[in-house]
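Inputs:
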Amino acid sequence: MAQEKAQATIKRWHKMVASKDLEALHEIIHPDAMFRSPVAHTPYQGRDALALALSTVINVFEDFTYHREFFTDDGKNATLEFSAHVGGKQLKGVDLIKFNDDGLIVEFEVMIRPASGLMALGEEMGKRVGAKLSEFK
Amino acid sequence: MAQEKAQATIKRWHKMVASKDLEALHEIIHPDAMFRSPVAHTPYQGRDALALALSTVINVFEDFTYHREFFTDDGKNATLEFSAHVGGKQLKGVDLIKFNDDGLIVEFEVMIRPASGLMALGEEMGKRVGAKLSEFK
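Outputs:
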């Protein structure tokens, strides 16, 4: 049940990314959700922080494509593998997402490789929302 | 079937990590396995490269602990989440592992966050095996 709800949320997320329409993003994120950035050590607190990060990053990524999907046995945690370009640098990444029983996102952690791709993303995100995001630490 | 073999390989891998005895590591890696480092863009080719990277990194990581395990539906791809310290820097990471039907590792990709942890790891790995590893590119 929890698994189906998590899957439904992922389906909605994929649709939002494909259409670049993130207006309903807050509907799939828990108010107390935590965002763990690939760059910064300290997590960002709350739905607004996560929504800001996600809605910015999908405009920073070029050729953004999802690949494999992995789940924990209980279906309440997913890993979404992706590839993209930022400023001419190729990168791979994962979204590690934790869902609650209602299928809402309660934690969203991103990891990026290689170092050149991570640096390019960090630089571009810093320019666009660095100051704003740091208010959520 | 393929799934059970992959699971058996992961079990052996966890035992090797726990005991820091990687003598049998080559038995679970396909000769043509590919290693995608968290730092470098270009992958490293072959079992020897992956074995060298893995046997080095488990001595670089302090407080190395595995957390969640995620699988694709066919059970032939796993994500292992971990945390560790390197040179006083805390880091999180994932191993994205692809198995063949016999449960052998054919691809091993690592991603690390945050940037400070990735840099600390890259520096330490570079010192220990940078030159040796680059022969496998």
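Remarks. Chain A has a mean pLDDT of 95. Chain A touches chain B at residues 36-41, 68-73, 77-79, 81, 90, 92-94, 96, 109-119, 122 (CB under 8 Å).
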